[in-house]
């Protein structure tokens, strides 16, 4: 269960890693701590300058010439420095853990940490590199890391087995895992040895299935069928003879080191689920920070170690178990196996409810700390399971579970609108007796819930209006509040402006959600591939004189507005908002508490945005101060230069920026959902437009309708661009994913 989380932390993205290996003693490095100075010495310039790509060399490579031999020696030096960097970072985390969070681990675990620190450097490096790989059995021949001055890795692996960090072949008891270690040739010979080779399908997968299906009984030499020694014993004996030796990190050990990382990076490790990155991210970020490509918004001495949300080893273990179960649920959901999901629900439903109901300490915690409790994760998984029950047509159970979650207001606050909408939908469509009246009563209650955000509120209003206006409902359904203006619960939003755009359709893969159009380059007349969003950008370039265009959805408004407030966002009113050096925002940023705790400062900054000159000065100051700082608020890649961003800000008036700033901070949690797809602008004409791109078959979501309505309210130009296909045409060249229009 810990595998996917640890894979996210440890797996190496080689192409990204090797392209970034440069001089760490140059201009980019300004960290002068002793540990980093030691690391920088080991990561020397000469080892990186001539090795832009890191090449793995196999131990069984044939004899090579002097030139290749020289290259291999350089690779050995580079790889050793890379390994040493991993080791330094890992030992730094381990020493900090023992210093600040020793109370989160029991005596045996601390002894194991001590034993690890007494190992040779080569053993430590091999263990760390194995953590970076997938949690599975590995043959000795595949464990090959170019470690300087180490000629026999076996000597480095043996101590790891002796202290219990690794399992060797003596612990191999999974036939399927063992068979997968064989090569195709070995599998063929192995199948022949046991007379189970398929004559038609000779694939490795088929051979494994045939071997697994061997009967546990066989006839004796005398021809009678008797219960004899399990055939698996013979299979394992021959299998281990061929493999010779293999190694694996056990789930328990992997879980222990995951808890170590979880205690040291509780925020960054979990937030990687919302990023399209692999697990090497945090170690790679260390490289980027060392060489100056990324900057930390915080100092090390700002970290509040005493405010870590885990107070006992049991709390940390329970939290880890909850994370593992959420990972298991996500894997089942990806497979769309409803039967297995129902079994998952039946296994944990009552158990989790009892845990949630018996817990009282979470009520005293602020919302941004409550998300680190196992009950928070359990309640979140239960909210996902309401949809599973609906898909399985177990409507009564789904209704009961939704009502249970809605009665626990300290959990799922950002999902309450979705839960209310699901409850109303089930009652309207699947409850035969008095279902429509129940639906209206549910909506009435939901509209008075302060945690229901604007998009969900609009969806509830539309459902109530349509249901109550049906001819069959007159005189039967009781819902006078719908037409009562004094109640002021029903919210009406006008539909936004629409335009029509046509394009030549090249391909439409509905299964993959990909639609490809073609456009003609106005300069050289060539035909290019493009997405539907790029087709729309091309329309605004050629027809409406917008010179720049970005497809970024909510990231553009976060960047434009966020930059104007970045210094305030990184100012911490209380020390407990920073518990992880790799945090990209304060813990309370995406909660309602953020604006409440900084209202005076934010309101004062909004009042300062009263002229173009002030806006430009604040944006330029924050760009210079925080450029390339790790941030989930400002996307530095959207606007490649400061002048490009300042030009985009010029296209918005001070009143528009003040209005949108107030809205984004007051409705912090809901604002990031449903923002229009495109931002097009012309800095010379000082005009811009936000555009939602749709095909004729697509409908606007209620969150998108709310945002478009708000932009109209703020007097910002916006519209819906509906694209229709008129045919297909052969293409010669593909455009980039983000178009900068000349």
UniProtKB/TrEMBL annotation:
Residues 610-725 form the VRR-NUC domain. It comes from the Eukaryota. One of its GO terms (molecular function) is metal ion binding. Its main location: nucleus. InterPro entries: Fan1-like, FAN1-like_euk, FAN1-like_TPR, FAN1-like_WH, tRNA_endonuc-like_dom_sf, VRR_NUC. It catalyses: Hydrolytically removes 5'-nucleotides successively from the 3'-hydroxy termini of 3'-hydroxy-terminated oligonucleotides. Residues 21-70 are annotated as: Disordered. Keywords: DNA damage, DNA repair, Hydrolase, Magnesium, Manganese, Metal-binding, Nuclease, Nucleus. It is found in: Nucleus. One of its GO terms (cellular component) is nucleus. GO terms for biological process: interstrand cross-link repair. Residues 21-48 have a biased composition (Polar residues). Its EC number is 3.1.4.1. Its cofactor is Mg(2+); Mn(2+). Belongs to the FAN1 family. Nuclease required for the repair of DNA interstrand cross-links (ICL). Acts as a 5'-3' exonuclease that anchors at a cut end of DNA and cleaves DNA successively at every third nucleotide, allowing to excise an ICL from one strand through flanking incisions. This is Fanconi-associated nuclease.
């Amino acid at each position: 269960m810990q595998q996917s989380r640890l894979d996210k932390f440890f797996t190496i993205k080689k192409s990204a890693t090797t392209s970034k290996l440069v001089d760490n003693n140059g201009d980019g490095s300004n960290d002068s701590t002793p540990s980093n100075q030691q690391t920088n010495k080991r990561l020397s310039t000469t080892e990186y300058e001539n090795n832009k790509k890191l090449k793995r060399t196999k131990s069984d490579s044939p004899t090579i010439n002097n030139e290749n031999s020289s290259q291999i020696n350089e690779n050995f030096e580079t790889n050793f420095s890379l390994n040493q960097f991993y080791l330094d970072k890992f030992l730094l985390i381990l020493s900090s853990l023992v210093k600040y969070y020793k109370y989160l681990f029991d005596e045996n675990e601390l002894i194991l940490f001590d034993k690890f620190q007494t190992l040779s450097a080569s053993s430590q490096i091999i263990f760390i590199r194995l953590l970076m790989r997938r949690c599975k059995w590995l043959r000795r021949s595949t464990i090959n890391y170019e470690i300087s001055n180490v000629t026999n890795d076996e000597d480095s692996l043996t101590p790891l087995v002796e202290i219990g960090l690794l399992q060797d072949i003596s612990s191999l008891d999974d036939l399927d895992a063992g068979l997968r270690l064989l090569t195709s040739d070995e599998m063929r010979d192995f199948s022949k040895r046991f007379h189970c080779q398929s004559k038609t399908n000779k694939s490795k997968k088929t051979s494994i299935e045939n071997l697994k299906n061997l009967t546990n009984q066989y006839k004796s030499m005398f021809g009678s069928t008797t219960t004899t020694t399990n055939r698996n014993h013979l299979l394992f004996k021959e299998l281990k003879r061929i493999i010779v030796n293999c190694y694996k990190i056990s789930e328990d050990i992997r879980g222990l080191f995951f808890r170590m990382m979880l205690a040291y990076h509780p925020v960054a490790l979990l937030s990687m689920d919302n990023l399209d990155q692999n697990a090497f991210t945090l170690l790679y970020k260390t490289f980027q920070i060392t060489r100056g490509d990324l900057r930390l918004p915080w100092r090390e001495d700002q970290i509040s170690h005493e405010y870590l949300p885990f107070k006992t080893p049991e709390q940390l273990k329970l939290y880890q178990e909850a994370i593992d179960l959420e990972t298991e649920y996500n894997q089942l959901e990806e497979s769309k196996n409803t039967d297995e999901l129902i079994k998952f629900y039946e296994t944990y439903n009552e158990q989790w409810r009892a845990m949630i109901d018996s817990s009282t300490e979470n009520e005293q915690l602020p919302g941004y700390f409550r998300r680190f409790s196992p009950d928070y994760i359990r309640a979140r998984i239960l909210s996902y399971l309401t949809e599973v029950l609906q898909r399985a047509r177990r409507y009564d159970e789904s209704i009961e579970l939704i009502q249970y979650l809605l009665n626990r207001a300290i959990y799922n606050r950002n999902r309450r609108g979705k839960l209310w909408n699901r409850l109303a939908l089930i009652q309207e469509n699947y409850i035969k007796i008095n279902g429509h009246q129940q639906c209206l009563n549910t909506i009435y209650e939901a509209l008075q819930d302060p945690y229901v955000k604007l998009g969900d509120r609009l969806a509830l209003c539309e459902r109530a209006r349509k249901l109550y206006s049906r001819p069959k409902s007159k005189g039967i359904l009781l819902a006078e509040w719908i037409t009562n203006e004094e109640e002021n619960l029903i919210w009406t939003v006008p539909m936004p402006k629409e335009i029509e755009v046509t394009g030549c359709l090249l391909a439409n893969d509905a299964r993959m959600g990909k639609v490809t159009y073609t456009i003609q380059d106005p300069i050289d007349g060539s035909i290019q591939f493009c997405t539907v969003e790029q087709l729309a950008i091309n329309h605004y370039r050629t027809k409406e004189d917008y010179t720049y265009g970005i497809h970024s959805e909510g990231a553009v408004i976060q960047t434009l507005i966020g930059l104007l407030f970045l210094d305030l966002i990184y100012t911490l009113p209380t020390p407990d908002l920073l518990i992880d050096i790799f945090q990209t925002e304060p813990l309370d940023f995406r909660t309602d508490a953020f604006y409440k705790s900084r209202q005076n400062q934010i309101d004062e900054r909004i009042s300062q945005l009263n002229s173009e000159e002030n806006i430009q000065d604040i944006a330029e100051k924050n760009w210079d101060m925080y450029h390339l700082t790790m941030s989930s608020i400002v996307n530095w890649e959207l606007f490649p230069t400061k002048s490009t961003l300042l030009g985009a800000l010029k296209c918005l008036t001070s009143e528009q920026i003040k209005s949108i700033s107030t809205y984004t901070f007051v409705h912090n949690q809901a604002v990031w959902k449903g923002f229009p797809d495109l931002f097009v602008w012309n800095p010379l004409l000082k005009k811009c437009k936000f555009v939602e791109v749709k095909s004729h078959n697509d409908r606007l979501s209620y969150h998108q309708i709310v945002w478009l309505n708000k932009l109209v309210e703020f007097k910002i130009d916006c519209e819906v661009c509906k694209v229709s296909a008129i045919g297909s045409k052969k293409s010669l060249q593909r455009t980039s994913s983000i178009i900068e229009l000349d």
